[in-house]
Design a protein that fits this description.
This protein is mostly helical. The chain is built from five helices and no strands.
């Protein structure tokens, strides 16, 4: 499920950045990405205003974490970071302990990546 969602996020991020996309296509892609912020907790009904078919928050976090890798296109990484930032800022209490640990580990890993970037004097 997380892999399928990751592919959908990649497509949506691409639509938002493609000059050939129509305004309606961009709006639909942005609405999809925004809808992921309303993901439900595992075993819980979706939050108010969210689609009944909204994926589990753990699936969204897993897909977003996968998409933050450096080998992903920048627009995909930015979209994934936005989802993770929202989860940490607004949904932290809805994350299970293993998910919190995974997000923390991911942040630490990316801090290390940034440290290497700055040490090389590229900033």
């Amino acid at each position: 499920m997380a892999q399928q969602l990751a592919e959908m996020i990649v497509r949506a991020a691409g639509v938002t950045q493609d000059p050939a996309s129509t305004p309606a296509q961009r709006q639909e892609a942005v609405a999809f990405l925004e809808s992921l912020k309303g993901a439900r907790r595992a075993g819980a009904p979706p939050p108010a205003g969210a689609s009944p078919a909204a994926p589990d928050l753990s699936v969204v976090v897993g897909a977003a974490a996968e998409l933050t890798r450096a080998d992903r296109p920048l627009d995909v990484q930015v979209s994934a970071y936005a989802l993770l930032t929202h989860a940490v800022r607004h949904r932290w209490d809805d994350l299970a302990e293993p998910e919190r640990a995974a997000v923390g580990q991911l942040a630490y890993q990316h801090l290390g990546d940034g440290e290497c970037f700055f040490k090389e004097g590229k900033a």
